[in-house]
Amino acid sequence: MAIKVIGFAASTCAQVVLMTLNELGVLYEFEEIAYEDIKKPEYLAKHPFGQVPVLIDDDFQLFESRPMSIYLAKKYQGTKTSTILYPTDDLRKAALVDQFISIEYSNYDVAIKKIAVEEIYTKFNGKTPVQENIIAGREALSKVLDVYEKLLEGKDYLAGDFSLADIFHIPYTYIFYQRNHRDLWDDPKRPNVARWWKNLSGRESWKKILHKYEGKFL
């Protein structure tokens, strides 16, 4: 049975999992679910919070995109491609990847979602975005990117080699880079951040998602 991912093409979390699978060279089925169906009992049996995505691998089910991606990397990396997204033979390298996964979740994602709440979710709910909140989000993200500039010194990727830690940054960054916020990543004062984003956005695994689903993006 092929791996199945259930979700929305517009979901940044689903995109993370699909990109992970693309990097690993693993075949999968992507089943798009209607928004109104995620609160129905049959879907809640798969994801009790009624969110996306859900991963089905034979008789195993998993929700939450970060654990899903870690599971996929540990199980399939090196079997279809030479890409290693989560080191399993070097404790220190694995710890560095974990460190940057945690930083993405606790700092980068928190900051960028301040913008997302206003520019995506507030509009989606038919309300007017609060410009002051967008400015505050930009300021928060700018401070995070100042730290990233130092963390990326002498490196192409956060943990040295390309890893899941990098993948987890891509979908939301792409959305706001394409909007009116690319100056945050292209700031001349942050050449390391600019180089890092150029490397990430140029990955073939990401381009496959853009080619197939970009018209459905947020």
List the helices and strands and how they pair.
Blueprint: E1 3-7, H1 12-24, E2 28-32, H2 41-44, E3 54-57, E4 60-63, H3 65-76, H4 91-124, H5 131-151, H6 164-167, H7 170-178, H8 183-186, H9 191-201, H10 204-213
Helix pairs in contact: 1-3, 1-10, 4-5
Enzyme class: transferase
EC number: 2.5.1.18
Keywords: Transferase
Q: Given this structure, which CATH class of the largest domain is correct?
A: Mainly Alpha
- In the CATH classification, which architecture of the largest domain applies? Up-down Bundle
Rounded average pLDDT: 95
Structural class of the secondary elements? Answer: alpha+beta
Through-space gap between termini: 31 Å
Number of helices: 10
Query: How many strand segments?
Result: 4
Largest sheet: 4 strands, mixed
- What is the string of SSEs from the N terminus onward? EHEHEEHHHHHHHH
User: Which residues sit in consecutive blocks of at least 5 with pLDDT less than 50?
Assistant: none
Shape: globular
**CATH level 3 topology of the largest domain:** Glutathione S-transferase Yfyf (Class Pi), Chain A, domain 2
Strand order of the main beta sheet, please?
2-1-3-4
What is the alpha-carbon Rg in Å? 17 Å
Beta-strand residue fraction:
5-15%
Count of the separate structural domains = 2
Helical residue percent band: 55-70%
GO biological process, one term: glutathione metabolic process
InterPro entries: Glutathione-S-Trfase_C-like, Glutathione-S-Trfase_C_sf, Glutathione_S-Trfase, Glutathione_S-Trfase_N, GST_C, Thioredoxin-like_sf
Pfam families: GST_C, GST_N_3
EC number: 2.5.1.18
